[in-house]
Design brief:
- This is Carotenoid biosynthesis protein.
- Keywords: Membrane, Transmembrane, Transmembrane helix.
- The chain is mainly alpha-helical.
- The protein contains 10 helices and 6 strands, in the order αααβββααβββααααα.
- It has one domain.
């Protein structure tokens, strides 16, 4: 039942996001929102590596299976989840910054995406029961390492900030394709770049059940917050603004 609900819910949400984005493209005669959705979609190819490093395990029994790589069985609903969450949220970020380019906008969107990530992850883990986080995990709430909600928000937010900044400089269809790698790059920056200290500690067996693991998890949150602050001040706030 969990797989059925997860699949129906995720494909339904992705369909809504796709319809809204297509309407935006037709209304404003632009193609970049669709390319951002594609960028979010292909980011799902990085999920198996995340699963291995962070200890996420998709239950294989009863799973509506898509493919297996890095010894991680990926469910059929994962690609639309990435399209809706990472792609859709990034489009939202760009539009919000176009309307109000300010640090207050950046931080408001960050907390909104964090809240959305935490609620959705806990729902899929504790309510639908389609995956779990294995091994020793810090700051667990309802089966979810809560600090990861802060990291998941970075991909859409930083990706959206970068796209917002470069859009005026992107000319023509060929150049527009350069938007596609942005969100996967932001995903890697947050989960594997800012997370390098935590991941290094997590791979040391003797340290997996210590306070050091919790302190290392905090470096992920702090690193991401500092990155968002840097990108916001560098790429969103104009030099002449207060």
């Amino acid at each position: 039942m969990g797989q059925l609900v997860a699949t129906t819910l995720t494909f339904g949400l992705a369909a809504i996001v796709l319809i809204l984005v297509v309407r935006l493209c037709l209304k404003e005669k632009v193609a970049w929102p669709l390319l951002v959705l594609i960028s979010g979609l292909i980011t799902c190819l990085m999920e198996p590596l995340f699963d291995n490093l962070y200890g996420l395990y998709f239950f294989e029994k009863g799973q509506w299976h898509l493919y297996t790589t890095f010894d991680s069985a990926q469910p059929i609903w994962l690609p639309p989840a990435y399209l809706a969450f990472y792609g859709g949220a990034a489009v939202y970020v760009v539009r919000a910054l176009q309307a109000q380019p300010a640090m207050s906008t950046v931080w408001r969107m960050y907390w909104q995406i964090v809240a959305m990530a935490i609620v959705s992850e806990i729902s899929y883990i504790s309510v639908l029961g389609v995956y779990e986080y294995q091994g020793n995990q810090p700051f667990v709430m309802f089966g979810y390492p809560i600090f990861l909600g802060f990291t998941n928000a970075m991909s859409a937010l930083v990706g959206g900030i970068i796209i917002y900044r470069v859009l005026p400089k992107v000319k023509g269809r060929i150049e527009s394709l350069s938007l596609v790698p942005v969100i996967p790059g932001a995903f890697a920056m947050g989960l594997f770049g800012s997370g390098i200290v935590y991941l290094s500690v997590r791979q040391i067996e003797e340290l997996q059940d210590t306070i050091l693991l919790h302190l290392a998890a905090l470096t992920v949150v702090i690193g991401i917050a500092s990155t968002i602050n840097l990108f916001g001040k560098s790429f969103v706030v104009r030099p002449d603004s207060k």
